[in-house]
Design brief:
The chain is about 15% helix and about 35% strand. The chain is α+β, with helices and mostly antiparallel strands. Among the domains are: about 95-175, no CATH class; about 195-265 and about 345-360, no CATH class. Strands 1, 2, 3, 4, 5, 6, 7, 10, 16, 17, 18, 19 and 20 form a 13-stranded mixed sheet that branches. It is globular.
Length: about 375
Amino acid sequence: MSETRILLGGKVWAHGLGPVGGLEVAHLWSSTGGGLHYAKLSIALPANFSHPQLRRGVSVEVFHGPQSLGKAVMADVDRAGWTFVADGLFRRAEHFNAENSGGGTSTNLQTVVTQANLRGMGWTGYGNLPNVTVSTRSQANNSLRTVADVLNAYCTDTGQRWGVGVDGSPYVATDGTAVSWTLRPGTPALPTADDDYVSRVTVRYVSAVTGSEPSAWGVVSASTTDTPHGPRETQEDITDQGLLATIDAQAYADSYLAANGARTAFTAAVEVNTELTTPASTSMDSWSAGLLTLGKLGRHHGVLDSEGGQQRYGETLQWVCGSTVYKPGEALVMAPVDIAARTVAQVIFTKSTLDLRKRAGLVDD
């Protein structure tokens, strides 16, 4: 029977040093980085034990049988209790400057990743990252200081997610739109709250620039008459995204309302036992959820729906998996994307906005 194991420094299996316990493997799908999120474990070792692979900065790879679940870097070593936490490889981007080959500031995705890899970031190439410069504005260059900052900004602009795959290669991708997994009836319902419920949103944006700096601002709004909990308004400021055409600012407002409007949002994860299946009802192993469900749309059958003051069993929800936490032999926990608060479905820039931004010198051709 296959088991989940930890390879330290590419050389030593953790279970070869002593009995391994408390294993926890988490994966994340996010516009601020994703892939293997972290791995936690403990090893039963004597008090004065010493080993060169049990230290911060050592590479860590999680396997289930021959299948890699992702790569990480040892971040926390507690020698008193011999517990360990390794951070996913994607988090290395938080600690490397966004620079070009000459050491100057850059916001080109391929450039900053390539140069950071040469300085030891540890990713495998630049994957499918496009040869795109996020911004040439002086204030943007000053604020986008790390590789993570640049990738985050790109995903804010495009509505995509980024991360590092099991092979160590970075990626950008969009949420799945076809159902790729299901939860059988019997899985607990996802709790909801109305913290982000809204029926009208106004959006402030940059409508003109002089040189490379904003010189005029505009406001658009979006609203709905579908207000089961009464009207509620909010404001969004997206001036940090630079010059926008009115049509694209309106698209942002419309997508914000679509993501948040007139409905409650998920506030917690759900524990899954044996209910996870493919759309064809073939059981899926819990260990594989971080690879097969992350970023994919799923169908949650048989949940309890209490909207409108009525409780109805047998309702079906659809949601994109945003994170998984797997504890071998114990539990699998799955959560939707943007669980803490539904974030805006980001603007999809049209040709009109790209033309505006190019004329203003905000992006490269």
